[in-house]
Write a structure and sequence with these properties.
The complex is a heterodimer of chains A (321) and B (210). Chain A has 321 residues and is of the alpha+beta class. Chain A is built from eight helices and 13 strands. The chains are: A alpha+beta (321), B mainly alpha (210).
Chain lengths: 321, 210
């Protein structure tokens, strides 16, 4: 191949430092977008930004729940998404979500709890320190990322609503806005998206309600303004853009289980020994490893076995997949 | 009808280049030329691109005969071999991407997948069936096989169905695209069945005493 290499004294040579780095370029765009959004809205940004833009969060790394692995790039995390509400291709969410408005935002809390009703997101987050946690994310499609989420423990939020002894499960629902979410105009899944956890899973210290990533509020394509993260489960359990939390006595329905019950169970724990009927779950492709980065073995409970295995003691995980 | 010279000197070379464009787009994106990129999951992108084009070229190849008849352009058949070989090429690249880049020659997993995952079994079968067609695509083989050549190359019918099935089973939720391919293949095969039947009927009718 003919590649012209700059020689010393070559006046036409471009120094690497003279080229705008990709991150600087992206930051500049983000700044412009944020300025534009704030200007149009005519307000100083609250803690949640206007559509299409993200703003900085005040976060503190929780080392106990953070991996030492190098996180994926901001670009990979925000351009390679499964968020069918915005389309089926991985690039659709980042391309089709700019019209989505994550503010103002309220969450309806109902069911087996004492403190129910409509809560503004600001009130839910009031007095909560936002933690940064670097978690593995394992998709059921056998790829994985490492993501520095920003959020608060789900247990802290749920306790505010004072669930009763009848609350055996927690159900979540994604917002239904076909006018802002083009994917909801087609019937690829039953909208709105619903998910659920057993109450002890929901109260587990690893369960996180994420409001941001990389120290900034969540971009729309990643589930703004509020999403669930359960790192020992397949990614589809991590329901996005949550508008409803319901405490129930019975196991709530979940979207992928409705769509294909023999392929996606309620638990959806990452398990290399229980294959998806159509593909192996034994190994995964690490996003960011490049063309020649080969697959690596998938870990039981996505590497969180020590923390969560006791939740499933005595259960046949082949049956409760 | 274009002259033999035009077909050989203009149409065929142009088609050859056009059919190589999907490959070129992958190569350009792999090297980041012209701002193109393979995205966060390059292996998946390469594999999907080759697979999609393999299926498209199978459909295009299957369409040559019907389109020739509908548009009354008999010379189109002269392009069929190149289209079929490109179909084989993209299917093979799709397979090799899976084997080398995706699985990284992890043989125990590869053999298990081919044996136990129906959608992979089906895809692999389609590839195996394409091999004899590619090998016998030369003029020499056509002459040597005579009548049997045509019978052998009817394998393209089940191959197309297997390819669509492979795609359908691989999709997670939205089956629209595989079903569109299925409709295309069924129309192209249905036309052949209808033509064979009506052809036979007219032969029978011609034989009947008037």
């Amino acid at each position: 191949m003919l590649i012209r290499r700059p020689r010393p004294g070559d006046s036409a040579a471009i120094l690497p430092s003279e080229i705008t780095s990709e991150s600087a370029y992206l930051n500049r765009r983000k700044l412009l977008q944020a300025a534009l959004a704030a200007g149009v809205a005519g307000i100083g940004a609250g803690w949640v930004s206007e559509a299409g833009a993200v703003s900085d969060l005040n976060v503190k790394r929780n080392a106990r729940y953070s991996l030492s692995d190098e996180p994926n790039s901001y670009e990979d995390i925000t351009t390679y998404n499964n968020f069918y509400e915005f389309g089926l291709d991985k690039s659709d969410p980042s391309e089709n979500s700019s019209r989505f408005k994550p503010a103002p935002w309220t969450v309806a809390v109902s069911g087996e709890a004492e403190n129910t009703g409509e809560f503004a997101l600001e009130d839910i987050l009031k007095g909560q320190a936002i933690e940064e946690r670097v978690y593995r994310l394992r998709c059921v499609e056998a790829w994985s990322m490492v993501i520095p989420w920003a959020g608060i423990p789900l247990a802290d939020v749920l306790k505010k609503f004072k669930p009763t002894s009848k609350a055996k499960y927690v159900a979540f629902k994604t917002v239904l806005r076909p006018e802002e979410m083009p994917g909801q105009r087609s019937r690829s899944l039953d909208w709105p998206y619903v998910e659920g956890l057993r109450i002890d899973e929901a109260m587990h210290p690893l369960s996180l309600l994420a409001v941001g990533l990389y120290g900034k509020t969540l971009p729309n394509q990643n589930g703004a303004p509020l999403r669930l993260i359960t790192p020992w489960k397949y990614g589809f359990k991590g329901i996005k853009s949550i508008v409803e939390i319901r405490f129930t006595e019975k196991q709530p329905p979940t979207t992928w289980n409705i769509s294909a019950p023999h392929e996606y169970g309620f638990y959806a724990n990452v398990n290399p020994n229980v294959d998806h009927p159509r593909w192996s779950q034994a190994r995964e492709r690490k996003i960011g490893a490049g063309i020649f980065g080969s697959r690596v073995p998938t870990l039981m409970f996505n590497g969180y076995e020590k923390e969560v295995a006791s939740l499933y003691k005595g259960m046949d995980l082949k049956k409760f997949y | 009808m274009p002259s033999t010279v035009v077909i050989r000197r203009v149409i065929k070379p142009a088609l050859f280049v056009a059919c190589a464009l999907p490959l070129l787009s992958v190569v350009l994106a792999a090297f980041g030329i012209g701002g193109a990129s393979l995205g966060a999951n390059p292996v998946e992108r390469i594999q999907d691109t080759f697979g999609q084009w393999g299926l498209r070229f199978l459909c295009i190849t299957l369409a040559v005969t019907p389109v020739r008849d509908w548009l009354n352009m008999p010379w189109l058949v002269q392009l069929r071999r190149m289209l079929g070989l490109y179909a084989f090429f993209y299917v093979l690249m799709h397979f090799l991407t899976w084997l080398i880049l995706d699985q990284g020659f992890y043989w125990s997993g590869i053999l298990k997948d081919i044996g136990e995952r129906p959608f992979i079994t089906i895809g692999f079968t389609a590839l195996l069936l394409l091999v004899p067609l590619a090998i016998t695509s030369t003029n020499k083989m056509m002459r040597r096989l005579g009548k049997r050549w045509k019978a052998l190359h009817r394998l393209i019918y089940p191959i197309c169905l297997l390819a669509v099935w492979h795609y359908y089973w691989q999709v997670k939720a939205d089956t629209t695209e595989p079903l569109i391919y299925l409709a295309i293949v069924l129309v192209l095969l249905g036309w052949r069945a209808w033509k064979t039947r009506s052809g036979r009927a007219s032969v029978v009718a011609a034989r009947e005493p008037s």
